[in-house]
Amino acid sequence: MAIVFFVEKISRSLWSRFTATFTAAIVGLLVIFFDLFFKLELFARFVAVVSHIDVRDYELDEFILLAVITMFGSTIDMVWYRSKAKQDIKLQEERLHAMRLTMVTVEDIINNLLNNMQYFRFKSEQGQLLDADEIALLDKQVKETTEKLEKIHALAAVAERDLGQGISGLKLDH
After folding, report:
1. Any idea what DSSP says for residue 128?
2. Where are the strands (E) in the chain, listed by range?
3. HSE on the CB side for 77, CA within 13 Å?
4. Based on C-alpha coordinates, what's the Rg of the chain?
5. What local confidence, expressed as pLDDT, does residue 92 receive?
6. CB contact set of 74 (below 8 Å; sequence gap of 6+)
7. How many helices (H) and strands (E) are present in the chain, helices listed first?
8. Total Cβ atoms within 10 A of residue 39
9. Residue, of 47 and 137, whose pLDDT is higher
């Protein structure tokens, strides 16, 4: 049972990667079938068209035609695969860039909050209590930080902004 699952998984994987090759091979096998059973002499006609000579007796002519058709399908698969691979690499690079922008922006937001909190820590180390205005300021800074982080979560598109010194972050207010 596990072997059947493994073979099916490989078959689906190979089919998805080499669709044109398998399609061309199937077409080639159908050409051989029709050529053998209906005596169409497709290879002789193919060679005659290509080289303008009359070719009638080749032992492996149908298989050569199959190879030509299959190579054509393989070529198409290689072109598609390379194109998809390039697209995948580009997509991964864009995702990595967006993640780095997000991390830099989160770090900037949190560091700003922590820098502002140093004032309150200094006051508490001195044994001083915070008055109502300072508590309101602290609450405001925590609320602003929370709102900025929520903006990151709600972003629909990535736009960059310069944070200075060659560092880029997310633009939160489009």
Report:
1. P
2. 160-164, 167-170
3. 18
4. 34
5. 93
6. 18, 20, 21, 24
7. 5, 2
8. 8
9. 137
What's the mean pLDDT when you consider all of the chain? 80
C-alpha dist (Å) from residue 69 to 65, 66, 93, 168? 6, 5, 36, 52
CA distances from 101 to 74, 98, 165, 167, 173 (A): 40, 5, 15, 9, 15
- pLDDT tens digits along 140-155: 999 999 999 998 888 8
Domain spans, the chain: 2-89, 91-170
Q: How far is 138 from 162, CA to CA, in rounded Å?
A: 27
Tell the residue number behind the tokens 């998805």, with chain if given: 16
- Choose among 78, 74, 104: nearest CA to 170: 104
pTM: predicted TM-score of the whole model, two decimal places: 0.53
Residue-wise pLDDT tens digits, 69-120: 888 888 888 888 889 889 999 999 998 988 888 899 899 999 999 998 998 8
What pLDDT band is residue 52 in, cutting at 50, 70 and 90? low
Whole-number Cα distances in Å, 39 to 64, 99, 118: 16, 63, 91
Residue recorded with tokens 């989160």: 106
